[in-house]
Amino acid sequence: MAKIRKYTMAWMASPDPDVTTYYVRATEAPDEPTYDTPYDDVGKVSQCDLPLPHTPLIDGDLTIALTAVDDVGNESDMVMMTVPFDLVAPAPPSGLRML
After folding, report:
1. I need a labelling partner for 45 at 20 to 30 A (CA). Which of 4, 20, 64, 98 fits?
2. 44-98 pLDDT, tens digit each
3. Alpha carbon distance 57, 23 (integer Å)
4. Domain range spanning residue 72?
5. CA distance 78 to 14
6. Number of structural domains the chain divides into
7. C-alpha span between 61 and 21 (Å, rounded)
8. 50 within domain boundaries
9. What is the pTM of this model?
10. CATH number of 14's domain
């Protein structure tokens, strides 16, 4: 399996004391994530590494959405950013041999 470079995404925590986790959603731009887009639950943190399991592995622009989720499952408005990513490994070399 190829190795894909990690990117770190960070944010300021929600001031709401009932927040228990954050959801990250990503789509290939120009599409924008919706609440129906599959998400990754990253926990009660203020940064995470990308790509996550539901991140499209593309070489292009991704729109990433972040929401805060409280202890009863209410989800905040989405904050979004669109950024270029190269999440595609190059083709491997070939013709390996001993000389």
Report:
1. 4
2. 999 999 999 999 999 999 999 999 999 999 999 999 999 999 999 999 999 999 9
3. 18
4. 7-86
5. 12
6. 1
7. 26
8. yes
9. 0.91
10. 2.60.40.10
